[in-house]
Specification:
- There is one protein chain.
- With 172 residues, this protein is an alpha+beta fold.
- It is built from four helices and seven strands, in the order ααβββαβαβββ.
- Strands 5-6-4-3-2-1-7 form a seven-stranded mixed β-sheet, with helices on both faces.
- Strand 3, helix 3 and strand 4 form a beta-alpha-beta unit.
- 31% of the residues are buried.
Length: 172
Amino acid sequence: MRWWDIEPVLELEHELFPEDAWSAGMFWSELAHARGPGATRHYVVARTVPDSGSADRAGRLVGYAGLAAAGDLGDVQTIAAARDQWGTGLGARLLGDLLRAATDFECAEVLLEVRVDNTRAQKLYARFGFEPIGFRRGYYQPGNVDALVMRLCDPATSVPVDEPVQGETTHG
């Protein structure tokens, strides 16, 4: 993810998470820590492959994900796929990218929070080896929705899904 991706990321963010969407400032802050030798963040976006002759040479932004690393601990900050991409494997590809980054950051484990009512995401995380370890009551505001905390020990041994998704590409 680069600064020019923030506007389309925000559009998708507000569509998918209208009550608790991140602000532009939050994404800017994360990207400020994503480059250089002391980087502690990894953010990626996914775009469709543009049609030949299309004015949109970059393709439509259809997903994004971010990881923060501190010491030997990684934390999935965000992961999202456009609704028309659900079931295509895009979420798995984004998560796989984050876990490879966690391995590069030498993280011994990766944590994440997921809404208790988001069973689709919970199943994805479980496929990668994440296990539930607790709850954070009222974590998602203003809806006061609980978060399930999940942990993956040793992300280097997780088996990410690397199957290509037709019409989709990632860049970071």
